[in-house]
Hints:
The chain is mostly helical.
Amino acid sequence: MTIGETMATLNGLGTEQNRKIYRKHGAVGDLFGVSFADLAKLAKKLKRNHALAQQLWDTGNYDARNLATMIAEPAQMDTAALNAWATGLNSHGHADLFARNVASSSPSGAACMKDWMNSSTDFVSQCGWDLLAMRAMNEAVLPDSYFEAFLETIESGIHAGQNRTRHAMNMALIATGMRNPALRAKAEAAAKRMGRVEVDHGDTNCKTPDAVAYIAKALAYKAKKTTSRKT
């Protein structure tokens, strides 16, 4: 499927209701309003197609960029390519998707993470902390000491951080706290000292969760699922 055909398909799948929802959740610029269910179906049809993903990203269209993160080939994203995409981030939704679907699986993602965390651009900094959360959830071989250092940074710097960065730092703390009992204790202690994390979510019902309560709930749900599989 060519870039023209793909954009025409996205246009046909968009709805006004979704456009309104996405705008409320921070979408800017051109968008069609394609549901993520439809995007997933289209991505499955297209499969991995890095050239097309790059063309989609370059359009700047909100839905095209969503799709781009789904069909990009992370192995082809070196440091320069990752930084090029990160520099162009203009919404927290794309920062999340880019971190989760592309940067976290790229061989160069970890090398970019710390630089992004320290960026003066909110969505880039958010992406760096999103990557830490991904590492906490998916890279079991990393030692506790690796995450303990970041917990200290989160505790000392979260309230001075930029808006979406604060949310991402809080979620990285939560992901760290879910790794094992020792890190849970350290993460919860840090969260209690930090207190409430204020984030402006705009005209939505979204909230930044209380870390201690969220960790407990998420681990209880995980334990329940494990028990269900065994029975």
